[in-house]
Specification:
Number of strands: 17
Distance between the termini: 43 Å
Shape: globular
Number of helices: 9
Strand content: 25-35%
Helix content: 25-40%
Order of helices and strands: HEEEHEEEEEEEEHHHHEEHHEEEEH
Number of domains: 1
Length: 331
């Protein structure tokens, strides 16, 4: 298996492209594939009737859902991808390549604490990914759970606390506390960001920053996968950008991307078999945390987030505090 260090050392970052306070660097990898992926994306598999996601059992459970893959190919489920419907909305706790012709129990986190009643028999894939600040914290929680128990759970109470705080800052009031309500409430503004940024030919990943602070890195094995998931990721980055508005746009040095790539490549790593195909790879240091899926002889997905100096993915919170705790910012 190629090391994370070897994989990220050869990544080239170009840009950034800028809209308001959000900066996106395009990532290219010399080994990224431009052929059609040998797996289906979750949204396509559901739309084509080749996969279905339901509650795990008649009464359901908050932390797991049932994924039935009837396709001849594996299906890629992305870390943080939102599932809406059934008893309550959830997000995926990790990136999984679900095997073909098999049913798999998938670890999830609840992002709608005020509902536990059946809305639809099956989940559908939403048009977004969990916003990056919450996704980073949940990724670190899953990593901690893997180290202590070997399972892929999150700290559900902390997830709910983060959602409530975010909704309050963004002025969103949902009767069920649904994360989806934040995306719905700010849909027009989020689409401004989606239209402002374009996927570049050959682009296999993206690194985003709010102002001069790096926020997240996502890298895929196929350029086509990046192209298809690009709008979902931009919406997730943009929801955090709406939360912190800088009065002036500061110039961003290209070294910002190379420094984050370097930090991720140097972080200590541990590996265990994935729930689906391949291995789940985790890395964590004082400056960065993240995860990756290694399957079929390559990294299918790598995601990374800055940490706060203790290994916790809370740099966005600590470096960009709430409005009452800072001057010269509004959020």
């Amino acid at each position: 298996m190629t090391s994370i260090s070897e994989e990220l050392t050869v990544v080239e970052a170009t840009g950034p492209s800028t809209f308001k306070n959000l900066n996106l660097f395009a990532l290219r990898h010399p080994n990224s594939l431009e052929s059609e992926p040998d797996y289906l994306l979750l949204e396509d598999a559901i739309t084509q009737g080749l996969a279905r996601i339901t509650e795990a059992g008649a009464s359901g459970t908050i932390s797991e859902v049932r994924f039935e893959n009837n396709a001849e190919k594996p299906v890629l489920l992305l870390d943080g991808e939102e599932l809406v419907g059934a008893m309550q909305d959830r997000v995926l706790n990790l990136t999984i390549l679900a095997p073909p012709k098999r049913t798999t129990l998938i670890p999830v986190s609840c992002v709608e604490p005020g509902r536990w009643r059946m809305a639809t028999p099956e989940f559908r894939s939403a048009g977004d990914v969990m916003y990056t600040r919450a996704r980073a914290a949940r990724c670190a929680q899953v990593t901690a759970c893997m180290r202590t128990s070997g399972t892929y759970g999150s700290d559900q109470a902390k997830v709910w606390d983060e959602l409530a705080a975010k909704a309050s800052r963004l002025g969103v009031d949902s009767p069920t506390g649904a994360m989806a309500a934040m995306y719905e409430r700010h849909a027009l503004l989020l689409e401004d960001y989606v239209r402002a940024f374009k996927w570049d030919e050959g682009q296999a990943g993206v690194l985003c920053a709010i102002g001069c602070l790096p926020l997240a890195l996502d890298l895929f094995d196929h350029t086509g996968t990046m192209r298809r998931l690009f709008p979902k990721l931009v919406r997730s980055y943009a929801l955090d950008a709406l939360d912190v508005r800088q009065p002036t746009i500061l110039p961003v040095d290209a070294s910002l991307a190379s420094e984050m790539l370097k930090d991720a490549s140097w972080a200590p790593v541990f590996v265990q078999p994935s729930i689906g195909l391949g291995n789940d790879v985790r890395f964590l240091s004082r400056t960065v945390s993240g995860s990756a899926l290694w399957a079929n002889g390559r990294y299918v997905h790598i995601c990374a987030f800055p940490s706060d100096g203790t290994g916790n993915a809370e740099v966005f919170h600590t470096r960009m505090s709430r409005p009452t705790h800072r001057r010269g910012w509004t959020g």
